[in-house]
Amino acid sequence: MTDPSIPLPPSTPAAPREEGPASASVSSPSGDLLPGQPYAAPLTPLDVQHREFATGLRGYRKGDVRAYLAEVAQALEAGLRERAQLNQRLLEAQRQIQEYKDAEDELRRTVVAAERIGHELKEQARQEAALTLQDAQNRAALLSETARTREQEALSRHEARLRELEATFSVRRAQLEALYQTQEHELENRARERSGALEREFSARYADLSGRLSAAHAEYAQFMSQYRAVSQAFAQAANTHLLPDAAELPHRQIAEGKPQAPSGPAPLSPEVAAVHIEEQRFS
């Protein structure tokens, strides 16, 4: 650093810089103009480093001046770089603000369009709901009328079928009654015929048995007559051979008609036994 007590040498007047109108903007290192600043040629670090000053008798040391100018050039370069960065950030911020404004406008237009579309959709949904309700009511009325018509048709078919079944049942009942009466007459006729046949068979068998019984009685009477004759003949033969009177023989008692002590059941002929068996069957 230079001593502030040492006066600076008189500087060589710098070349005048051209300035534009007061309302012009200063151009940034990137070439953009800053609003609200007068236009002037930018001072670069190279200008500071190569600045020449006039020499005097008691002037500053050139080394110190050059070192100071180098520091000023570095500071100026850093300031210009920072200024360029700030300008770049400012431009980026302005661009983002413009994008935000555009996005806000787009969002506002989108919201307005969404509200308009929402109202349109609500109105369309209301109209569609009204049309759907009207269509449903019409379909319900049509279905109700169709159901009533089908119910009437089904009831008519059912009544017709019922009358047909009643007629068929009446005819079938009459046929069954006629068949029952016919079969009943046939059974009665068969029963009468069977009863007559049994009566005739019984009469024939009864007559046969009666005849056989009469024949058996006649045979029995003939047998008894023959037996009595044999007994009388035997009695006569006994009297001829002088049998004792005290010892009366059975054949003599029979011939004289006296009762005889039973000595056991008399044997029956096969005809008499058959007659007794038939009498037991019909008793």
UniProtKB/TrEMBL annotation:
GO biological processes: cell division
Pfam families: DivIVA
Record InterPro entries: DivIVA_domain, DivIVA_fam
Highest taxon in the source lineage: Bacteria
Spans annotated as Disordered: 1-44
PANTHER family linked: CELL DIVISION PROTEIN DIVIVA
Protein name per Swiss-Prot or TrEMBL: Cell division protein DivIVA
